[in-house]
Amino acid sequence: MSARPYRAGWIHFTNVAPILDSLALPPGVTALTGVPTQMNAALLSGQVDIANISAVEFIRHADVLSALPDFSVAVLGPVYSVNLFHTVPLRKLRRVALTAQSAMSVALLEVLLREWGLSPTLERAEGEAETLLAAGYDGVLRIGDSALREWYGVVGPLGDEQTMPTLPHAGRAASGQSVTVTDLAEEWFRLTGHPFTFAVWAYRKDNPPPPALVQAMRVARREGIGHLADVAERHARKLGLPVRVVQHYLWNFRYHLEEADRLGLHEFADKAVPGHAELTFGARPGEG
Ligand SMILES: C=C(O[C@@H]1C=C(C(=O)O)C=C[C@H]1O)C(=O)O
User: Is any ligand 1 atom within 6 A of the Cβ of residue 71?
Assistant: First the structure.
């Protein structure tokens, strides 16, 4: 009787392409993909054994989950794909649409709103930012590849010499509506001076990943980061964005859960989930 496969669940946004695109799954490991809230649920329900889940769900369930010690989706400063699109100044926000795809960015927005002393109505709604803004929302929270494309739709096109636009990001939607894009990771940096860790690779403490999978992930990450221009070119075509924008976007991520990323993660955990269980991370590379 062959052992049950070890099942992975990947949030396969472009931001994890440098890790997952060239990942060769070792024998006995299967993988499925989905958006963050789907993969969070899949891990917590036992449908998958490991997933790059929203860091806030790892924090909320730290009593039963551990995370790989050297994998993250983190940034120091702007992230360009976790965006609050708004047509009024932040202090005048009254009604904000939240994507149902995300757990992390919703929790981060709630922490930031609390810090800013703001309490707009938050409603789950799906759709492009421009559509929801035209439908009467003052603000729309979007994440992932669609948020990156919509951000560029507002701030682009870039001049030939420009790599990335300077903050704050403002411009006009295709409808002509004046839109400001507030980058939630940049606001976290202004607030704390620390990186923001959006995702960690988490698994149930009683069912850690086979070393062969972790090693294959490390090889794939080295390959992806080592050929970032190729990864960026491939995904720029898919996204319909300039290669240099996607290359900067990917170069900007921190994929190794370093001390600074953990500092930001712990600071967020204390703000967003008071009384959370201790965050635990698997054996360091080469240990145990
Ligand atoms: C940076 C991002 O982080 C993602 C956002 C997540 C969330 O909001 O729950 C989860 C996984 C991350 O890869 C993004 O969506 O662009």
Answer: no
Across the range 106-120, mean pLDDT stands at 97
Look up the pTM and report it: 0.94
Distance between CA 129 and CA 214 in Å, rounded? 37
Alpha helices in 50-206 (DSSP H): 55-60, 104-116, 129-134, 144-155, 184-192
> For tokens 């240099």, what's the residue?
244
Sequence-separated contacts (24+) of 1-8 with Cβ below 8 Å: 3/28, 5/29, 5/30, 6/30, 6/49, 6/50, 6/209, 6/210, 6/213, 7/31, 7/32, 7/47, 7/48, 7/49, 7/50, 8/32, 8/48, 8/49, 8/50, 8/51, 8/213
Q: Is 220 near ligand 1, meaning CB less than 6 Å away?
A: no
The DSSP output letter for 91 is: G
User: What's the ipTM?
Assistant: 0.93
* Whole-number pLDDT of residue 287: 46
Residue 209 is given by DSSP the state P
- 52 Cα nearest atom in ligand 1: 11
CB 143 near ligand 1, within 6 Å:
yes
Confidence of residue 148 (pLDDT cuts 50, 70, 90): very high
Q: Whose CA is nearest to atom 5 of ligand 1?
A: 198
Q: Round to whole Å and give the CA distance between 155 and 137.
A: 20
- Cβ(214) to ligand 1 under 6 A? no
Split at pLDDT 50, 70, 90, the class of 285 is very low
User: Scanning the structure block, which residue is given the tokens 């620390």?
Assistant: 194
pLDDT, tens digit, 9 for 90 and up, residues 10-45: 998 999 999 999 999 999 999 999 999 999 999 999
